[in-house]
Design brief:
mainly beta, Thrombin, subunit H, 1 helix, 6 strands, about 10% helix, about 50% strand, disordered C terminus
């Protein structure tokens, strides 16, 4: 599902420094999400992704980062750290279709 869902990212950047980023999910599915960020983050890094309106926190692993200068610059591909975890896509879809 394509979306613009506000989130907070918490974790360590590529230099090992802890960061906090108000960001947004640009697409989401049952296995993870694609997120826009201003930080460089290494694949394999575990991030906490917090839905801002609900304070629901999920742990996701960075599986790719868009190349500088590409269409996907400043994008991260994330998958759940726990393969049994997932989003409540029905609830999320209903919220963002209504603009809540």
């Amino acid at each position: 599902m394509t979306a613009r869902i506000p989130v907070i990212l918490l974790g360590k950047d590529a230099r090992g420094r802890e960061f906090f980023d108000r960001s947004e999910v640009v697409s989401i599915d049952s296995r993870g999400a694609r997120v826009r960020t201003r930080f460089s983050i290494r694949p394999g890094t575990i991030l906490e992704v917090r839905l801002t309106d609900e304070m629901v926190t999920k742990r996701l692993r960075v599986v790719w980062q868009g190349d500088p200068g590409s269409l996907y610059e400043r994008m991260l591909g994330l998958e759940f750290a726990d393969p049994n975890d997932t989003w409540n896509l029905g609830m999320l879809g209903a919220r963002w279709e209504l603009g809540l």
